[in-house]
Structures are given as structure tokens and as C-alpha cells.
Amino acid sequence: MNALETALQGKRTEVAAHLCKAFRLSDKKWQLVLSDGGRAPSRYTVDAGDQRAALALRRRRAVAWWTK
Fold first, then answer.
1. CB-based contacts of 33: which residues, under 8 Å, 6+ apart?
2. Residue 47 sits in which domain range?
3. Residue 47 falls within a domain, yes or no?
4. φ and ψ at 50, to 5 degrees?
5. Within a domain: residue 23?
6. Segments of 1-68 assigned E as strands
7. What is the Cα–Cα distance from 30 to 24, expressed in whole angstroms?
8. In Å, what is the CA distance from 27 to each residue of 40, 48, 49, 59, 63?
9. How many domains does the chain have?
10. What are the per-10-residue average pLDDT scores of the chain (68 residues)?
């Protein structure tokens, strides 16, 4: 067992993950602001009513943040 494994033995090392979201909806475009709570928020724009694009964007960002 190396030093890191020895130091972490029996310790809880999981990280609580949060996805902070803000939506600004208008007739022509939707603005989304996403953050993992630790980094600066990222801003995105999708066409109004395009729910698939908004959900896909949210999913992609969440996976990108939590797999680093």
C-alpha cells in the first residue's frame, strides 16, 4: 500500500456534486447559466422552445465537470 492509500484508508473521500442552473426564457432565445458551484458560471444560448438542446447541453456540461 502506498502513502496515499494509507492516508485515505477508512476515510470518506467522495465529493458532493451539485449542478447550479439558471434559465432566462424569452420568445426568441433561452439563456442558460450552468455551474458546478466551484467554477465560474458558463453561459449558453439555445433557440426558444428547443428543450432537447437545453437538456443535451445540461447533460454534456454535467458529464464534463464530473469526469475531470
1. 21, 22, 23, 24, 41, 42, 43, 44
2. 17-66
3. yes
4. -85, 75
5. yes
6. 20-25, 29-35, 42-47
7. 6
8. 27, 6, 8, 23, 29
9. 1
10. 60 65 93 85 93 89 71
